[in-house]
Amino acid sequence: MTAKTPGKVLIVDDDRNLLGLLKMRLETSGYIVTTALREQEAKEAVAGDVFDLAIVDLQLAEQDGISLMEDLHRVLPVMPVIILTAHGSIGSAVEAMRRGAATYLTKPFDARELILHIERAMENRRLTSEVSRLKGLLAERYGFENIVARSKAMERVLEVVSRIAPTDSTVYIHGESGTGKELIARALHLASTRKESPFVEINCAALPETLLESELFGHEKGSFTGAVRTSKGLFAQAHEGTIFLDEIGDMPLSIQSKFLRVLQERRFTPVGGERSVAVDVRVIVATNKDLDKQVAQGLFREDLYYRIHVIPLELPPLRERKEDIPLLVDHFLRKYGKQMNKDVKRLTPKAMQRLMLHDWPGNVRELENTIEYAMAMTRDDVIREDGVLPAKAGLSDGPLKPLKEAKDAFEKEYLINVLKVTRGNVSSAAELAGKYRADFYNLLKKYELNPGDFKKETASPK
Ligand SMILES: Nc1ncnc2c1ncn2[C@@H]1O[C@H](COP(=O)(O)OP(=O)(O)OP(=O)(O)O)[C@@H](O)[C@H]1O
Ligand SMILES: [Mg+2]
After folding, report:
1. What ligand has the least distance to the C-alpha of 174?
2. Which partner for 332 in 82, 160, 371, 405 could form a disulfide, CB atoms 3.0-4.6 Å apart?
3. Is the pTM value of this prediction over 0.70?
4. Best of 158, 183, 284, 329 to mutate for ligand 1, by most ligand atoms within 8 A of CB?
5. Does some domain include residue 226?
6. What Å distances lie between residue 99 and 40, 82, 249, 358, CA to CA?
């Protein structure tokens, strides 16, 4: 058995006999027990000592046990409390749980049952404090404070992230565009022991096949036209660190087999090279596609899919976690307030409502850009409804268009806004949109937008 520090338990009951009996039983089981006959004694006890658990009778002399529990929780907020109730007072027991009791026990009970409850309550307490300790640790040290998560779904994601960060397992992040895949990938790296080593990222969709191969694996001088000198490749650059392969679903089949070898043997051969190179990397991949479908269509190797699918992380779309919106808005108000040196405090309730009603096809990135844009435009310290989401982009207005058309309309509108905010500076615009310059240019071409048109125009809200 592992030696553990004995738990300190406080028992509050106005029945002197029961108090004595419980004390004896718990001490036999190795607990250190303090007893209190009166409420006042209990309050004094928690003021002077830290208890791991309290047992409080529901019916006390001066106060009911629930309000005493609340008083104790004001001093020791995380101490689990077990409420003792008389037979037939199930209503109060439920009320006690609602107001923060760990559990309740109906009298008469036997000692074994009590011990079981105590152990379970302490174990739960240990687990929750472990999670919050991890969270606090991560927030402090690794910049988790930049990740806003209030929804249960996102909390779960962060919990998994904090648990798997220190391991070397391959992580598979799936989520729509703008849901925070890259943010999570970086957080994973920063929370790992590899954090002092490089974090290297590449978008597998951004380069043509041959270039992608030599980018990833490097090449020998002269191995193809344009290979004027030997290059190490990204896998080698990421040695002892993390490589983040974004849009893995777009990796061509020819490269997939080479990548699979890296995962299986931790070795690869540079383009035109003869000898294989060993590499120690943690791999994180991300995609917004349904890879099972790609597998079914023969576009993605099944064996590779299983290799990378070790730890799947699903980032839910923003429309499924709208409770995160107000917090994200605050976060972005602060972020851009600092950058723009503007003090915009809040959105009007109407403006917030508009955000809550919107469906956010571009997810968190779209929300971020909306707030940044609104902040750039406002001359006030509040943002009003006409300052966010031009009515055209709102899905709730007008007859519904087919998805493709609506997405295109949104994308174009969005590009125009980004170009306005950046006054036609393509590099900043691409960065703002989270796109590579080349991709961004392609988008501009698609919508026949000319960045020059935005150069002089002083941006103004429509
Ligand atoms: N939970 C969050 N808290 C704070 N900021 C967030 C959160 N999620 C996303 N963001 C911000 O939204 C933007 C988009 O996130 P990110 O680039 O990680 O998304 P992505 O899923 O990689 O998108 P894409 O598929 O288009 O590459 C970033 O600026 C990021 O900082
Ligand atoms: Mg991304």
Report:
1. 1
2. 371
3. no
4. 183
5. yes
6. 21, 12, 48, 35
